[in-house]
Amino acid sequence: MHRALFVGTLLGAALLNAGCSESSSPASSTFMPRPTYENREPEGLTSRLSGFTVDPEAYFINLAHCAPPPAQCPLPPLFAEFSPLLQRSVVRGALVTLQDTVPDPVTGRPPDPAPPIPSDARGLWTLPKVPTRKGAPFFVLSVGQGTLANDVPPPFPLPPVAEGNYLPTLTIRPVVPAHSACVGLEALQMSDKGVLEAVAKYLTAIDGAPVTVPDLLNPGRFGGITVFWLYRPGFPAFRVPAANTTVEASSGRVLNIEWAPVGALPPPLAPFQSTRGFFIAPTPPGGQPAPNSSLGLVAIVHPPLMGPPGTVTYTAKDATTSVPDNRPWSLMPLALPQIPGLVTFAGLQMAPAVPSTTPQFPPPSTCLPGQ
What we know:
single chain; alpha+beta; Immunoglobulin-like; 2 domains; eight-stranded mixed beta sheet; three-stranded mixed beta sheet; globular
């Protein structure tokens, strides 16, 4: 799928250069007037959407085990089909569909998603006939199923990632199918053995009332959970955690997440560690919670809804200022609906303090808003 995205980028650049080059178009004919063209969006067209399913926790664990710090992993940290880091992190048999954002004129809420389709043995999925349109986006939704591809042989030994059950996950990446094909779309899958298990263990210990992962998706107890994973700036497929960052939320309880190899934590912290190694360090009485995450990994737990779902504004924060690293990094604030009953996941690449002056033209096949 990334090969298709790469080829699409080259084609887009070639067409752009062709459109900007000088042309030798003839002057208007005095015999026949030059026709005028009106660009309309035809009705009844469909777009073909394709992408891959990936477990971001498994990807990170594979990256961490590839070469423990301070050594550097010889594999590129990319969401790319040729990388064993991604190949061992895809989810087979994941059920993928789209969540519309356009409310129904009768009910006032978005329509129910179409029946999901499964991803194949390589984690690839295709939705062949999505209505072509501009304006309001769709979001990729996985309904919670699948098997992690732990059996893909890497070029050197990597321990298997602990497997778990996948949960309904909405990927925060708008998709506007205004093009005939949309490629390289991510359907991210959150499990019950990683970040969410760490959140449940922390809430149980700190609040004194038992909390399980299913409880986090129970609208009677919580109004949903939103997980941000912030990544360093770079190439669009670059996936390296943005250290010393966090997310502020206009509503909800913000918890900064850490990770360590299973069994490596001291005894006081061991009960807080999830099966996959994620944990939230408890604060001493009267202390302040960790202000940032060394992984750029943040969970926001929402209180139960007391009425119609509200909108929560999220603002990424970088606590580091460094001219050589072009920091602090940033993101535009995001306003997202509070959605109980599923995990809202945003894996986002931050922007450098001083943006590049080189213009970037993503190909139409990325199907981003505004194209």
